[in-house]
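Hello forum,

I keep getting stuck at the same step: I have a sequence, I want structure tokens, and every attempt I make locally crashes halfway through. Rather than fight my setup again tonight, could one of you with a working pipeline run this one for me? It's a single chain of 195 residues.
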Amino acid sequence: MQTQQVQLGDERNAAAYIREQHTSQLQDAVARYLPALYKRAYRCVGDPHDAEDAVQDALLAAYKHLDQFKGTARMTTWLTTIVTNSALMQLRRRPRRPHISLDEQFLEDQDYSMSDRVADVRPGPESECIRSQSRRHLMRLMKGLSPAERRAIQLFVLDGLTLKEVSDFLGVSQGTVKSNLFRARSKLKRMMRRV
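Reply #2:
Ran it on my machine without issues. Output:
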């Protein structure tokens, strides 16, 4: 029985010695590599406060579970793994999508809010209707132009091609395209005044 107590005491002393040795290694690793551990956490979470929380949680967990350190890897490798896992836990705790008030100012030095930034800038139904009617009216008036003038206006104004692109497409010089555009615009202005 006494031999069992001696063995039990020796095991406790050995465990205490190992714990003391691991605590010393942990303190040394933290003292030397804390900035690197913080950078690792920051790269994962992208927020300085969350990174600090992740490192703090990781160091606390490492100290609590120091008996699980087997010594097969370096203490810094073990700590880096714990910090990475802690940072990933921080990310999991975050809401999936950040909640931003639409009335909140977008940037401190600017006078517009998020609702101004995300406002729909596309034309409304009334504008679309007017544009559609104007286009139909223009297409009717274009019937009074010569085929060369009509093609030049169609490609340059309605399709948005450059002078060179229209010239290449039609196989004529840029000067010819310019003169067809000038004549077409002049005729269209006259026709619009009559309406």
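The helical segments are 2-45, 48-64, 75-93, 114-117, 125-142, 147-158, 163-170, 174-194. If your local run keeps crashing, start a new thread with the error log.
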